[in-house]
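Could you help me review a protein record that somebody else here produced? What it holds is a sequence and that sequence's fold in token form. I have pasted the whole thing underneath without changing anything:
=====
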Amino acid sequence: MYEIIARDGRAKSAVLHTPHGVIETPVFMNVATAAAIKGGLDAADLRAAGCEVALCNTYHLHLRPGEGVVRDMGGLRKFMAWDGPILTDSGGFQVFSLGTSLRRATQDSAAMPPERSVALPREARGLGGEPFRRAKHD
């Protein structure tokens, strides 16, 4: 559940309730692109710094280490040694900007095939991710 606490013009503070914890916004979020906590830090260090949520990129998880590896290790939380909320995104921007065999070129754009675009975030959620963000559309 997403609950707006206060507004000031276009700015707002809110609380997002997830099965693995509460996220108060605005928030410090660890960007763990491929489910890796970087910079020589561990989960306890991130908690001490006030980190409430980790963000993993579905596309990068798919490339490396791969869904099977994360699943075999017990899901994202065990793989990362992180017990808090984990947000996974669609990875759509990376498919467009980095280009891969998953990308189909059209005359004016490049996109991940729809079946993979939907499947990857679902697979990441199955690995332990919280709500996910879809690629933005105009």
Summary: The chain has a mean pLDDT of 75. Helices lie at 43-48, 58-63, 67-72, 76-80, 92-98, 114-126. The two ends are 25 Å apart (CA to CA). The chain has six helices and nine strands.
